Amino acid sequence: MAEHVIERSNLLNTAKLAIKSLIETSMASGITTVDDSDEQLQQFFVVMEHVLQHGMKQKRNIIGQKRTFFAVAEAMEKYIPGSSETLLSVRNMSAIRTGLGRLRAWLRLVVMQKKLADFARELLDHRDVIEEWYEDFAFMCTDDAAVIAGMLVGLTVLDCNLDIRGEDLDNQSTVINFSRFLKEGNYLTRSGQDASGGGGGGGVNSGMSQTDLSLLLDQKAYLEEMNAKLQNTVDDLQGRLSVAQKCNDKLQAELDQTADRMNTISEKHEQFVHSSSDQHAGMDKKLEAVKKDIDTERQTYESARQGLNEMYSAVQKQLETEIKMREEVEREVEVQRSLKTESETAMQLMERSVHEKQDMISSLRRQLDDVKQANLSMNERLQKGEETLKDKSSRLDMLTISHSRVTADCGRLEGEVANFTQRAEAAEDTLQQLSTRFSDLEAKKAAADADLVIERQWRSSMQTEQQQQRMKLQEASMELEQLRAIKESFVDLQRKYADLQELCSGQEQTLVELGDRLQLSKRETEDFRERSDQLKQSAWADDKQVTSCRQCNSAFSVSRRKHHCRQCGLIYCHACSDNQMVLAASSKPVRVCDHCYTLLLQPAGKS
Description:
Layout: H1 2-29, E1 33-35, H2 39-53, H3 69-75, H4 83-91, H5 99-113, H6 116-125, H7 127-133, H8 144-151, E2 159-161, H9 179-182, H10 187-196, H11 201-343, H12 354-383, H13 390-417, H14 424-537, E3 563-564, E4 571-572, E5 580-582, E6 589-591, H15 594-601
Parallel strand pairs: 1-2
Antiparallel strand pairs: 3-4, 5-6
Helix pairs in contact: 1-2, 1-8, 4-5, 6-8, 11-13, 11-14, 12-13, 12-14
């Protein structure tokens, strides 16, 4: 227990020293703004970390890390409504991974917001939270915590500008440097002695005058820098305005060009529509004429086909008659065979006339060869015909077979002629009859050949007509393909026309948006000019001449301190200037009054 009492007393004294030294050094120098480079501020954070972490229950969580005061701050979130934003900003810092790092980030944010004293008072009011998270011997469980909470109220006179993201909060040193407090003896008693001990009044006045002069010089430099930055922003906006006007002129010229193009395209479209309608009408007429020609040609082909069928039927009848005649010839040959036996006795008498008959037989053979050649040519010609002439070719083959039989019979007759003596004259008559019949057959074959030639000519003419019809059909199909291509090109032109209309509408919208932006930029320039004029007219108010708040008219006292607005330079109380904002002359948030805060937060274009 004695050890815990010593620890608490040491922490109390160290915390008092850190808070007093931080406040007095800043007030003595006349600069109430501190940043990361201030060593006393860093030592204050280390001491507060020890104070807040003292006597916490050492219960580990699931991950294995020790408990930190940041968990206590999260537990107090439901009792302090304004602390949720600070905790959320700390949780969103991805570079911080440990609980100590989150505690240090939270502590710095609360100090910058000047809410550390309020949080300490709220925590002390909720004893159940303290008993849950702290041991009985902890510093926060004693009355010393109330003393530290009362001293933290004095930190509201300071403005802290800290860069939390640029620091490695997870690995900072937690060692307190006591050498700063031991250089000039006991710091707690020294401040009281300086207040009670006499000093030369002239020295104090000279120190105050030097501090006032330094403050005035700093304020002058600050205002000059702010005016320069505002002038640069005005020049930049004027340049942007000129660029926007040039872009507007270019867009207007392009819009005029597109309008001219649209007019030309619409004229071409109308011409194309007229030409396409004329072409459609002409093509329809041509198609109707082609259809009529095709119908007439079909009719002629059908009529010619009927004539050919009639001719084929006639040829078939002629073949049947020829077959009957061949049968009669065969019957006569049989009769001659029967007479062969009778003519054997007369062979001796016919020897003299054999030579004469042989000449006649050779002539007959020649005639038979000619007939064979004619039959062969007829067969070849008939084989080249259509499928309907196949029957005719087969029948002609039968005729050739019968002729070959006749020739065989004639050969037999050559041997039998020697025996023909008595009936030589009858044989001659029969030969004459056969020759006449063969001449008739040759005439019929010639007529058939003539008919075949006529049929071939008619077929060639029909083929030429079919080729012409095919050419016409091909031309019609080509014209149809051209019409389809014309239709596709017409559809493409309609699409392009729609795309151009969309482009024109989009360009018109962009022009309208550019006009709105130009008006907004003009308003912004006017607002910036008004603000620059207001800033030029503003001046840094003197602390001695001001006795009450500019806004609420509350009198200043020890508890209600004076605060300068870094924007307008006037003096306000803490309640009327409790705003932090980054200005053009500072890279970090500084104190701003409520009027300037609302003025700076106004959107451009509103008065």
